[in-house]
Amino acid sequence: MEQHRNAILGFLFLLWCRHVLLFSQYAAQCEQARQRTIQHVALYMRRMHESRSRRRRQRRARDDDDVLLWLHRRRRRSMWIQPRPCSWWQHINDNWDDRNWQLNFRMRRTSFMELCDILRPSLIRQRTHYRCPVPVELRVAICLWRLATNLEFRSISHLFGVGISTACIVTQQVVTAINRVMQHLYIKTPSDAELKTIVQGYRDKWRFPQVAGAIDGTHIGILTPADHPADYYNRKGFYSVLLQGVVDHKLKFWDINVGWPGTVHDARVFASSSLYHRGQNGTLLPGWTETFEGVDVPLVILGDAAYPLLSWLMKPFPEGSGATWEQTQFNHRLSQARVTVKRAFGRLKGRWRCLLKKCNAHISLVSHIIAACCVLHNFCEVHNEEWEDDEPAEDEDGLLEPENHHQANSGGHIRNALCAYFTQ
């Protein structure tokens, strides 16, 4: 019995020893696995740190390379603009008198400087460390020279010491500034006081009462447009856009309409204008009347045979064998008073010769250039800039507008009253 118990205890001791050995082996394996995991994590963290450091060094190297490349290029660029002589513009400022300024810039130096002061807020450019901006006076001079002579930009570039593209851009900028800043100041419907002066001016010079202005249209030659060129080919045999203008007794425009293609009739341009709609609504002219032959005659605008006869727009009687002597006299008096608009167009094209034969600008810029020339024309007239009317007279349109009987009746009694007044 004792021997049997000792055998069991020995077996249990051996079993315990085996379990202790297995447990020790398992613990050693777990410790080895933990050590391997720690080593892998440490290796991964070290590789990540090395990768980030390497990317940081590469990025710093690229930045350094960019800086070095920029410095290298900066050292290589020896100039920002091609040097050109500016002595001619300096000679103008130092030696030209008012006569030379009028002949070339269409205005005296004092008027030129006033124009520069008006446009200065829109044309002045910021001075930088790289180069000096083109002065406002030089910008305005380049534009005026282009408009007054229609000289190509290559020649203007040589004269004023600027690049060809600079001369072109400067001209467009000045034209835009003139229209934006000055058009509402120099081309506007006359005030009541100004209308009284205009009416009295027509009465004193041409003995035609109640006249607020004269209206007509003229063709401005252009380059052949790329789109719909046939619409711009007028009956006179060249491509053009139309300028409709109303002028006062001093040859100043107080209303313009620009941009219609050359094939469009003057009557259609007139009917589509804001001038016509304001006249028909009674908001164009004040309701001042003067009685002639028992008829209250309102303020009127004088037009040629191409325009409709309205209560506020007078046109001549149809000429021919059926015209009476009284009607012929009326037509003669109206034609004498309407000479203002013909002279205004002639003086406009004489001053700004880019409008005289062909305006060598893109069709999208032509209307802006024409409007700017009209503004500059009024600016010159306001400042009493002398100009000799040696330019050719405008040709009559020659296309008659058939009279609408309803419209003719509304203005016919007014025209008949004026006709009777002139034959007294």
Q: What would you say this structure looks like, in words?
A:
By secondary structure, this protein is an alpha/beta fold. It has helices spanning 2-76, 87-95, 98-105, 109-123, 136-149, 153-160, 164-186, 192-206, 266-271, 274-281, 325-337, 339-351, 363-382, 405-422; strands spanning 211-221, 240-247, 253-261, 289-292, 295-298, 300-302, 313-314. The strands form 2 sheets. The protein has a 5-stranded mixed beta sheet with strand order 3-2-1-6-7. Strands 4-5 form a two-stranded antiparallel ribbon. The longest helix has 75 residues, at 2-76. The termini are far apart.
Mean pLDDT: 87
Alpha plus pi helix count: 14
Overall morphology: elongated
| Helical residue percent band | 55-70%
Structural class: alpha/beta
* Poorly predicted regions: none
What can be said about the biggest beta sheet?
A: 5 strands, mixed
Please list the strands of the largest sheet in the order they lie side by side. Answer: 3-2-1-6-7
Radius of gyration: 43 Å
Q: How many strand elements?
A: 7
> How would you spell out the order of helices and strands?
HHHHHHHHEEEHHEEEEHHHH
Distance between the termini: 173 Å
Roughly what fraction of the amino acids lie in strands? 5-15%
Question: Could you name the key traits of this structure?
Answer:
alpha/beta; two-stranded antiparallel sheet; five-stranded mixed beta sheet; 424 residues
